[in-house]
Amino acid sequence: MSKRFRIPGRLATRLHELGVGASAVLQSAGLAPGLLDQPRIVVTTEELFALWRGVGVNSPNPAIGLELGTETKAEHFDPIALAALSTASFGEAMEQMARYKQLSCPEEIIHEMDDSEWSIQFRWLLADSVEPAVLTDLCFAWVLCIARHGTGTRISPLRLELARQPTHAKIFERHFGCPIVFGAVRNAIIFRSSDAALPFVTSNAELLAMLAPQFDEELKQHKGEESFPERVRAAIQRKLAGRRPKMQEIARELHISSRTLQRRLQDAGYSFQQVLEEARHQLARHYLNNSLLELNETAYLLGYEDSNSFVRAFRMWEGTPPAHWRGAQREKVLPDGRPARAAVTS
């Protein structure tokens, strides 16, 4: 997993087209004035969040994230999006993007599907603060853009779930063509399960055959850059869903024996329990920052037997109960994603 995000080189141009000055955004975000002029722009999660909060602060347009996440010209799609559009269906496209997201950033695309619904969420693995509203809007608009461009239809989700309080509902309803549920326990875009099978008119096996090997090779390089404890932690997080994965299960996931897993962790100065707790800690911060899940629900998702066990663990990690920590994080930003301190001067 790369620990930095790549920023599209066209961002400054896109901001200008939408009436937002890049210099003002960078100043508000506390970032280097020439950041967006670099040939290769990479930022940490903290810097990424600051950048998108800066966009929100400096744009009077409540749909700025939706517009930045929507692309109409095929030549402006990045290689990962082009590879996704070259697949056979909407479901395959999202699986492709989820896989290759690992190439560019500490971010995951999470899919959950049952008989009737297919939910898609974005998880920021190294986030220490609340996800900016503009970034949430951009991500879901981007998913819809891929779906509509690929299928060649005006496909709409069943609904959009946003953890924020109600704001500009009509704008979102018009853009997504579906009901918006504000004050939800998570940020998610929900399609019909059957939508995953929708064929892509943009399917291009030859282009995919050209792009996929390049991404696979880069993915191998990134995996080689990861430390072994990081690989174990990522495998644990994939299995943490209402239960605590065992060492044997993670070893099978990594195609090694339990003894080898234990030995390699010890060589790196870790135990399996330490990596498990790091995985839980990282996910706990994500759930508390980016959802309205109750503590008992969060405890369940992290594989704890009860909420008291989770509260004790969180106190050890952060020195404060999870409810207090969540409150302190949310006081740092306004409901629209702007830093609270910006409200004083705006």
Describe this structure in words.
This protein is of the alpha+beta class. The protein has 2 domains: 62-205, no CATH class; 227-331, Homeodomain-like (Arc Repressor Mutant, subunit A). Helices cover 54% and strands 10% of the residues. The strands form 2 sheets. Strands 3-4-7-5-6 form a 5-stranded mixed beta sheet. A two-stranded antiparallel sheet has the order 1-2. The longest helix has 21 residues, at 205-225. The radius of gyration is 20 Å and the shape is globular. The relative contact order is 0.11. Mean pLDDT is 87; it is low at 335-346.
Brief overview:
This protein has helices spanning 11-17, 22-29, 45-58, 64-68, 79-85, 90-104, 133-151, 169-176, 205-225, 228-239, 247-253, 258-267, 272-290, 295-301, 307-318, 322-331, 340-345; strands at 5-7, 41-43, 107-113, 117-124, 159-162, 180-182, 188-192.
* Number of contiguous helices: 17
> Strands across the major sheet, in which order?
3-4-7-5-6
Structural class: alpha+beta
Our measurement of the CA-to-CA distance between the termini, rounded to an integer number of angstroms, reads 37 Å
Q: Which strand-content bin applies to the residues?
A: 5-15%
Nearest-angstrom radius of gyration?
20 Å
Q: Which overall shape is indicated by the principal axes computed on the Cα atoms?
A: globular
Task: Please describe the biggest sheet, giving its number of strands, its sense, and whether it closes into a barrel.
Answer: 5 strands, mixed
Domain HTH araC/xylS-type: 230-328
Keywords: DNA-binding, Transcription, Transcription regulation
Protein name: AraC-like DNA-binding protein
InterPro entries: AraC-type_N, Homeodomain-like_sf, HTH_AraC
